Amino acid sequence: xxxxxxxxxxxxxxxxxxxxxxxPFSQLGDGSPGQTAGYIIQMFGLLTVLAVAPGLLITVTSFxxxxxxxxxxxxxxxxxxxxxxxxxxxxxxxxxxxxxxxxFDRAWNDGMQPLMKNEISEGEALEKIVDPFREFMLxxxxxxxxxxxxxLAAEQTAAGEADAGRDEDRSSLGELRILVPAFMxxxxxxxxxxxFLVAIxxxxxxxxxxxxxxxxxxxxxxxxxxxxxxxxxxxxxIDGWNLLVGSMIRSFL
Length: 253
Description:
Elements: H1 2-20, H2 33-51, H3 53-59, H4 63-77, H5 85-116, H6 122-140, H7 143-157, H8 166-172, H9 176-215, H10 223-237, H11 240-250
């Protein structure tokens, strides 16, 4: 009985302490319900942005081209788990940071810092943060892909002229809902193009090894087992990582 009473006293003490530490919403702003709700909505918006940040990194940066090329390279060499996914993703991330460094710096200096110093409003900061990424995507997107989503948007809204000029298209295609998917499929195409060129030498090695093993009557020996060391040796001899990474970074310059 005494233990039960002591436990209840402890619970009441903890509940009182928790109640005393309750967040004073009335002290947010001027205490009006509308302003308090505004702060809560801003907090949820910030948490939402942080949750979708990895997806934004993939969609509006050069990450897609890097990771697609590295995946095709690993498949072309016949390696299933080497390099590991974590290594490929980390390499693609750091290459993305290297390529996107001027864009990140401009977005930080023009948008984030003035916002943190209360020099501009949230709307102006968002526009200044998005502008560098919009320019980067416009520099690397294919005009054909851009027109595809522009036409689809025009069909959905039943607005816009079918024979509009290039400058008019550029001005109307500033919306991210058109630019982002166009940029993504452009990056996928370039990633597959580079991956195709990378995979051709390994395919030639597979064909040569398969021809030799078949001519020698080695029916039970898989050609991929014999070709794997030669493909790895070939990639090392040409300094493949240096050539591939350097070429991919130069493709954005």
